[in-house]
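Worked example 3 (structure in, sequence out).
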């Protein structure tokens, strides 16, 4: 009887495997939700990049380090101006 009990809990496809599979499923579900949120964010960004000039300008400034026409950047190193 004791051997049967151990076999049910720790044997192949037993309760220990079931518990491990449930944890794995929960982790995959959480990862899937995070990827869905990231995907939605990227989808919205693509939409804005196609239609919103202000958003495009912000991306160009923040991510690419670009500046607009007739703008001057003051550098803290020796107070030199760059155009």
């Amino acid at each position: 009887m004791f051997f049967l009990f151990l076999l049910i809990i720790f044997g192949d496809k037993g309760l220990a495997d079931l518990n491990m599979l449930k944890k794995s499923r929960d982790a995959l579900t959480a990862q899937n939700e995070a990827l869905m949120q990231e995907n939605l964010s990227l989808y919205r960004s693509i939409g804005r990049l196609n239609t919103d000039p202000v958003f495009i300008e912000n991306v160009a400034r923040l991510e690419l380090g670009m500046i607009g026409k007739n703008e001057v950047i003051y550098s803290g190193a020796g107070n030199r101006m760059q155009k």
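Notes: The beta strands are 73-74, 81-82. The helical segments are 2-10, 15-51, 53-64.
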